[in-house]
Amino acid sequence: MTWLADLTLRIREGSGLAHKRDIARVMQHLPRHAGAEIVVGDDCAAIPDADGYLLLASEGYLNDFVASQSWFAGYCGVMVNVSDIYAMGGRPIAVVDAIWSNGENQAKPILDGLATAAQVYGVPVVGGHTNLRNDAPQLSVAILGRSKRLLSSFAAKPEQILLAAIDLRGQFREPYLWWDASTVAPPERLRQDLELLPTLAETDLCASAKDISNAGVIGTLLMLLECSDLGGLIDINAIPRPANIDLERWLRCFPSYGFVLSVDAVDCVAVIELFKQRGIACAAIGKTDDSRRLRLKGGDEEQLLWDLNREALIGCGPKRQG
Q1: Can you give the residue ranges of the PurM-like N-terminal domain (predicted)?
Q2: Are residues 290 and 52 in contact, defined by beta-carbon separation less than 8 angstroms?
Q3: Containing domain of residue 121, as a range?
Q4: Which residue, 26, 114, 123, 181, could crosslink 170 as a Cys pair with Cβ 3.0–4.6 Å?
């Protein structure tokens, strides 16, 4: 087996894609609403409202993560939700949290992390649910935002250029696959960096984007392609990466500030330059096509990662919508 075949197999069978496959199982049980204007599968539900959209999303966290990384779990409750709003061309309005713990002392670091991130990103926590009489700590956070123009996983088109924009000014929170470019960064810089996404939407430079999740950059691209009923070819060596960081670890990590975008070729230089001006690495890493197959390229070799003609990943493609 070649190195690329081995890497492709490990990404395909890794925990990042395994968690996303669970979405398809859940989708089988959700009712379809024929003719509904709200598609399912984006980073947020986009609800038409006046001359724009209300954006609604939520995140829940694994119990062992909340127990072992309590402060950071609380911080992520805001950070990850905020990224989902911006990934769709929006701006956050407010968050609510649901927290369970075995007493106040166990809840405190979670709430401290939540409060810190709320201040950093300028998003108020306006309510939620509290239970301090549970046998273990648990956390879920929801967010409301608004956008004038959408960036959507359903809006990519064939023959567009795939870009990855990632903030490399961070470090791994060892020993995990979490690249932290947020907790030690200046808050004003973080907020202005995120403003690039609604700017792209409102200036018609981009219509399709997605926040890089725990599925990593490859898994996130696969979800975007599935929603747009597309395939593509990705050059893994073109993905922006910090010096001296292992390629496989980087491809599988959650980068805290990272987005994939599908952009018309004529607009690529302008989009890359906007990120570059903010000190964020952005590069063309591939191209979309109508094959519904995602292939990875490394040097002169190509490997098939996923064939959406044979198997869905999240089960949220156009055929699933009403």
Answers
A1: 41-146
A2: no
A3: 45-147
A4: 181
